[in-house]
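Slide 14.
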Amino acid sequence: LTRGLESRMGTLATFYLIFLCAFACSFIHVVLAYLPYLVASRTKYILQPSVGYSACLFAYLVLTPPSGSLPSQVPQGLYPYLLLVGIQVILPNISFLGHVSGCVA
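Slide 15: predicted structure.
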């Protein structure tokens, strides 16, 4: 995913983007996990661990949707969100909140 970005932006700018996406995804994840606690005093999402780089991958998918590999029936703008739902259905124990924070970032 980042190879196309790096060829267009350059290595240093891509490194900065990776750092920025990681920070933004983490910040948004903390905010989204804290909202249910503020509204309904639910601690489920605050206590749920979030480990991995997949939120950043979803952020890259939103920035640069894959070209040429999609069926013509799927609009490229919807691809990351359809992938988000599809992965959650296939693997229900993954961090949905982490992936959503990547899409929002």
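Speaker note: The chain is about 65% helix and 0% strand.
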